[in-house]
Amino acid sequence: DVVFEGLKILEKNSDADPVEVRFNKKLGEISNKIDVVVYAEFSSDEALNAFKSRPLYEESIERVLPNRELRFVAVTRS
User: Which residues, given as ranges, of the chain have pLDDT below 70?
Assistant: First the structure.
């Protein structure tokens, strides 16, 4: 719950559209190690950098970092 609530803060950050934080339903057959998923879209690298520079992002990191075991990041480019 600490990690989930810490990540939910990111949904208030206006530099991404959308930002969604959800519990993983763990429907995969091979690996179910991820408990919480953050999905965000950014119009540019600048928007991502702006998102990461906000106090909400820092607050989220401070809450989540000491309470997580794994972190995976996926980036796509169109």
Answer: 78
Residue type, 18: P
pTM of the full structure: 0.85
* Exposure letters 20-31 (e unless 16+ CB within 10 A, then b): ebeeeeeeeeee
Specify the pLDDT at position 30: 83
Structure-token pair, residue 9:
């803060």
Who's near 23: CB < 8 A, 6+ residues apart?
Answer: 4, 35, 36, 37
Give 39's Cβ-side CA count (13 Å radius).
5
CA pair distance 24, 42, nearest whole angstrom: 22
